[in-house]
Design a protein that fits this description.
The chain has helices spanning 19-33, 65-72, 86-99, 116-128, 140-147, 191-201, 220-230, 247-258, 278-285, 298-302, 315-324, 326-343, 347-358, and strands at residues 2-8, 37-43, 49-52, 58-62, 78-81, 104-109, 135-137, 153-155, 177-184, 207-214, 236-239, 262-265, 289-292. The chain is globular. It contains 13 helices and 13 strands. Helix 1 (19-33) crosses helix 13. Strand 3 (49-52) and strand 4 form a beta hairpin. It has 2 domains: 2-156, Glycogen Phosphorylase B (Rossmann fold), CATH 3.40.50.2000; 162-343, Glycogen Phosphorylase B (Rossmann fold), CATH 3.40.50.2000. The termini are close together. Helices cover 40% and strands 19% of the residues. It is of the alpha/beta class.
């Protein structure tokens, strides 16, 4: 099979660090491993060019939407569509209708917009001009919503590399409680809550907090917090450029998570990330206790836990409780290990479900 992942350059670039990109890279790598061709095709790029991604993934960049569509029409069996700008959706609907006899078109839904109007708009195209393929949903609530009006919905949790997964006995124990934040330095991701936690705990000698951050250059808030973090000498802050993905990036995140006790993900809103956050699942795979908020499907994915907090004021007391009662952390790891087996989101298994859905 020849499969293309298609979307605008702003939303789909192989070399960016982000949940959408991780989702597509890992599926594409799995498809290549099964002998299929998998490419990234985007439009709105600075220049029209062809490049190579890891493992043989083809990267095709186009300035113009029309040129990208012309390229797609030349021989793909399946096109997996990501978010498209509203102005492009109806042109794309016409393209699908013209080519549906020889190409199967699929859609992936990544977000759950806060606004009801925007949420309905995100799903409107598939309702008025149905896809002839599958409607992939990354979260249970998306799947429930799509299933009300279509029998083409498929729940596909974001894949996590098998190398991330640990068994409880393999999780290292440390003299200090190790806390980690990984993500954009933006308010929607909860970076202010992380800074608040740091200020509450910075005098505690038996714990340490690291922040691994990146930001969009076009985000003034992200840049502001990055600069503040960079100039705080007492804080362990590590910066990665947003457009700096390489295979070593995954290895580095895996190493950090596997060596950490608590992953902090204090989202203010899930619309700032994909609806089943990749980092949540990666942290679970590495048996990190995840301190996060009960937004969207996070409670059903992570499972019942005292680490589902309502606000920043609960963070420091919970960390101190885990510090004073190490057995609670061990119990949490065992619970997460069982939950991972129930959710079954290892990359190989997710790729197999994806391929069955395509067939």
């Amino acid at each position: 099979m020849k499969i293309a992942f298609f979307g605008p350059f702003s939303s789909l670039d192989y070399f960016k660090i982000g949940g959408v990109e991780s989702f597509c890279r890992r599926l594409a790598a799995g498809l290549l491993g099964e002998g299929h061709q998998a490419d990234f095709v985007n439009y709105g790029a600075p220049a029209t060019e062809k490049r190579a991604g890891g493992g043989g993934i083809g990267l095709f960049y186009f300035r113009e939407f029309k040129a990208a569509l012309q390229f797609l029409s030349r021989g793909y069996d399946h096109i997996v569509t990501l978010y498209l700008a509203p102005r492009d959706r109806w042109r794309y609907a016409y393209f699908r209708r013209v080519n549906q006899s020889r190409i199967t078109f699929h859609q992936v839904y990544f977000s759950w917009p806060d606004s009801l109007i925007k949420r309905k708009g995100a799903f409107l195209e598939a309702r008025l001009q149905p896809f002839n393929g599958r409607l992939f949903c990354v979260s249970p609530r998306q799947y429930r919503y799509v299933s009300r009006w279509s029998d083409r919905g498929v729940l596909l949790l974001p894949p996590v590399w098998e190398s991330y997964f640990l068994e409880p006995e393999a999780k290292p124990n440390h003299d200090k409680l190790r806390l980690i934040y990984i993500g954009r330095t933006e308010p929607g991701k909860g970076i202010e809550e992380v800074i608040y936690l740091y200020n509450q705990l910075k005098d505690q000698t038996h714990m340490e907090l690291e922040i691994h951050g990146f930001h969009h250059q076009r985000s003034p808030a992200g840049v502001k917090f990055h600069e503040w973090l960079s100039h705080n000498d007492g804080l362990r802050y590590f910066y990665s450029p947003f457009e700096s993905y390489s295979p070593e990036t995954d290895d580095n995140i895996r190493r950090i998570l596997q060596g950490s006790d608590i992953l902090i993900l204090p989202y203010r809103k899930l619309s700032s990330t994909i609806d089943a956050p990749v980092l949540l699942l990666e942290g679970m795979a590495a048996l990190c206790a995840v301190m996060t908020k009960p937004l969207g499907d996070i409670p059903s994915l992570y499972g019942p836990s005292p680490l589902l907090i309502k606000g920043p004021e609960e963070m420091a007391p919970m960390v101190k409780r885990l510090q004073n009662s190490p057995e609670l952390l061990i119990i949490e790891r065992r619970r997460i290990f069982q939950r991972n087996a129930e959710l079954d989101f290892a990359a190989g298994h997710v790729t197999a479900r994806f391929m069955r859905a395509l067939a």
